[in-house]
Specification:
Blueprint: E1 20-25, E2 29-33, H1 34-50, E3 58-61, H2 66-79, E4 82-85, H3 92-102, E5 106-110, H4 116-128, E6 131-138, E7 142-145, H5 157-160, E8 169-176, E9 182-188, H6 189-202, E10 210-213, H7 220-233, E11 236-239, H8 248-258, E12 262-265, H9 267-275, H10 279-283, E13 288-293, H11 299-309, E14 316-322, E15 328-333, H12 336-343, E16 361-362, E17 369-370, E18 388-394, E19 397-403, H13 416-469, H14 478-523, E20 550-553, E21 556-559, H15 560-568, E22 578-583, E23 589-595, H16 605-614, E24 624-628, H17 642-649, H18 674-696, H19 698-702, H20 707-723
């Protein structure tokens, strides 16, 4: 398992760049590697930054297409935007209540007309005065937020180049706490990542597995278990193109060639897949299966699932009961023992619910019952054969109870009890360690005092013996002897006073320790159940959140996706579009090149060095970094990766430019003459003004047909033509 994530901004993982991430068989099949997914997410994140979205901004995400939803969701995570999911088949009134409850100002929907959710979102945007972001998807450009109606804002480098913290909010879920009351539960990046790690551990998921998304990712449980979790491990996810329950054959025909190994489905869907005549080949490779439900199951439901399971053999069949939010309800192994144990309950739900979700539970270390009203989520080891016990009475009424090896109670915040338990144990450990250190220091101080006292006593006895033996000889030095006695008496007085103050200090420290102990006990309630010893909650070594590259053109700073946007504004130019330079802080310049290549176009060393010379690159060899953006050659080969295309198109050395000129006259290293340097400054300032006007003038960027923008575009075209390769 790779190092743990710190924020969702690190998805997709860089170490899985060339691995296949998503397969989406829609009208045309899309296959995205982690690198391809990274590029689309970065492009949309750059557009959000240009539109003025900053960490902590809230928006409603209403997209029917699951791939569009996932890409825009990750783009929001990169920027730090808090997502309010709008689920499928949400009515106009429910959508309006969600927007008004959170006081949202922005909604994201599809640009395709005719979709009910998109039409409803656009209608509400006009009615409530919301800012509506439209998302388009095509085979050439992929998924992209449209910029026609966006007002581009001027942002400094510090505003755009920020670091996200694990405590930043990620998702805000609207939960019906009662029939008339709704509440918003916000989850941070760290909480979502903890849930991901829990799913990965319980589901025995590995990077070699092939999974599928059975439901829309607006359900956070599906998003985390079936998309974010596999993506963090480098697994491949197949997004279901149709309603599987109505057309299971299409799904099975597409899933068999992929070699699906990890299945997660609801009980009705699992039953359909189990009973389908073509499913035998599908289940030959499946090694793990989840059955996910939203409510606790009774014995009848368990029996139906076991009967449908008899047609195929899966090593691990796990049943997961969970809410629509990120919390878990029940996790246990599906076996005959469970069915027999549940049969004793007839058709009563496992764990008699109180109000909405609560249950009566038996303390595994005792016999008393834990009663709690409100939300209750249980994460535990699997049931044993005596899991169900109906002998407990609450207020004289017999109740069905569950006995688990480990119980986790939660209120409003995800993993509150787990976090509280960990914090409590950590505080308790720190307190015990501090008390031990203080006790050790006190003992060492006492030992040192005893040794010092013994040494002084020994010196005093020796001095007394010497004084007695040489009383007459020391008569002439009586004053010196009295001075020594005064020093000794002063030392003893200091020693006794220090000992007294030390005891007082020790007493006050003990009193403070007792107070701190009681404070900790009040602040962090003592858990009534032992924490399960499991590897999934161990601390992993954390690494820094890598930031995307930013480049400077003059005094302006842009990301690679923003440069790509500039390039796309002028599709007539098909050769090299932009060469950028910046200093890396080590008194050495680096050259970053954004390339747009047509199929078959080759970049030779001679043309490249000639172009570098035009930009005034003189002196020693410089490191060169290549970025291939758009218009990549398309072929049916399985080797079609970004690395393969880069190696195919670029014939230059990949690490360094060995010579900066092709002209023999300039073979020697020399500095630029003043006239050439002045001309270079003029061209650099011209480029800076042109890009600045294009990006940072909101009125001009709002309407792409405005005359001033056309003039700026023509200037940029002139710059690009100057910078393009000679054919």
């Amino acid at each position: 398992m790779p190092q743990t994530l710190t924020t969702l901004r690190q998805l997709p993982r860089a170490e899985y760049a060339s691995k296949l991430a998503i397969v989406y068989p829609k009208h045309y099949e899309r296959k995205l590697s982690n690198s391809d997914l990274h590029r689309e997410v970065e492009q949309n994140a750059a557009i959000l930054r240009l539109a003025g979205f900053t960490p902590g901004t809230h928006l409603a995400l209403c997209l029917d297409d699951p791939l569009e939803y996932f890409v825009v969701f990750l783009a929001c995570m990169w920027v730090g935007v808090v997502v309010h999911p709008i689920k499928l088949k949400t009515t106009e009134e429910e959508m309006k209540d969600t927007i008004q409850q959170a006081n949202l100002e922005t909604i994201v929907c599809s640009d395709v007309s005719g979709k009910k959710s998109a039409d409803t979102a656009r209608t509400l945007a006009k009615e409530l005065g919301l800012h509506c972001l439209l998302v388009s998807q095509n085979i050439n450009e992929g998924i992209k937020i449209q910029m026609q109606d966006l007002v581009l804002k001027s942002m400094s480098f510090e505003d755009r180049h920020y670091k996200l913290e694990p405590s930043n909010a990620a998702v805000a879920i609207h939960v019906n706490s009662s029939q008339t009351d709704k509440k918003i539960v916000t989850y941070t990046h760290e909480q979502v990542i903890k849930t991901m790690e829990l799913y990965i551990h319980l589901g025995n998921l590995t990077g070699s597995d092939v999974t599928f998304l059975s439901d829309h990712p607006s359900n956070c449980g599906n998003l985390i278990m079936q998309l974010l979790g596999p993506l963090s491990l480098g697994s491949t996810v197949m997004i279901s193109p149709t309603d599987i329950q109505n057309e299971p054959s299409r799904f099975i025909e597409r899933a068999i060639p992929l070699g699906m190994t990890w299945l997660s489905a609801s009980p009705p869907l699992l039953k359909v897949l189990c009973e389908h005549p073509k499913a035998n080949k599908l289940y030959e490779k499946i090694r793990f299966s989840w059955c996910s439900v939203s409510e606790p199951l009774n014995a009848k439901d368990l029996a139906e699932i076991v009967q449908s399971k008899e047609k195929f053999h899966v090593p691990h069949q796990v049943l997961l009961g969970r809410e629509e939010t990120l919390g878990l309800l029940f996790v246990y192994e599906l076996s005959s023992d469970i069915v027999e144990g549940a049969a004793a309950l007839s058709c009563s739900p496992i764990g008699k619910p109180v109000n909405s979700i609560s249950a009566f539970l038996v303390d595994p270390e005792g016999t008393h019952t834990v009663e709690d009203e409100g939300e209750l989520r249980i994460v535990g080891q699997y049931f044993s054969s005596d899991a169900c016990n109906s002998s407990v009475e609450i207020d004289g009424v017999p109740c069905n109870c569950i006995k688990l090896n480990w119980i986790c109670k939660l209120k409003e915040e995800l993993f509150y009890f787990l976090d509280t338990t960990q914090v409590y144990l950590e505080k308790k450990r720190q307190l015990e360690e501090r008390l031990r250190e203080e006790e050790k220091a006190r003992q060492e101080a006492e030992r040192a005092q005893e040794e010092e006292k013994a040494r002084l006593e020994e010196e005093r006895q020796k001095g007394k013996q010497v004084n007695d033996a040489t009383d007459e000889a020391d008569t002439s030095r009586g004053e010196n002897g009295s001075r020594l006695e005064r020093k000794l008496s002063k030392a003893f007085r200091g020693l006794f006073s220090a000992s007294g103050s030390g005891s007082e200090k020790e007493g006050s420290q003990k009193q403070k320790a007792v107070q701190n102990d009681s404070t900790v006990a009040n602040s962090f309630p003592v858990p009534s159940h032992p924490r399960r010893k499991s590897a999934d909650f161990d601390s992993y070594p954390k690494f820094d959140d890598r930031e995307p590259e930013y480049f400077k053109v003059g005094k302006s700073t842009f990301s690679l996706a923003e440069i790509d946007y500039i390039i796309q504004k002028h599709p007539a130019t098909s050769e090299a579009k932009s060469f950028l330079m910046y200093s890396n802080g080590k008194h050495e310049a680096e050259v970053h090149v954004a390339l747009t290549l047509n199929p078959g176009r080759r970049v030779t060393s001679e043309l490249f060095t000639k172009h570098l010379k035009k930009w005034g690159i003189r002196g020693k060899a410089l490191p060169v970094h290549y970025y291939v953006c758009r218009k990549l050659p398309r072929n049916e080969s399985d080797e079609q990766t970004r690395e393969f295309i880069k190696n195919h198109c670029l014939s230059m050395p990949q690490n360094k430019v060995t010579e900066a000129y092709s002209d023999p006259k300039n073979s020697k290293i020399h500095e630029k003459d003043p006239g050439e340097e002045q001309q270079s400054r003029k061209s650099g300032s011209w480029l800076r003004r042109s890009l600045s006007k294009t990006f940072h003038n909101g009125d001009q960027a709002e309407d792409s047909t405005d005359g001033s923008l056309k003039r700026n575009s023509s200037k940029i075209m002139q710059i690009i033509r100057r910078a393009s390769f000679s054919s």
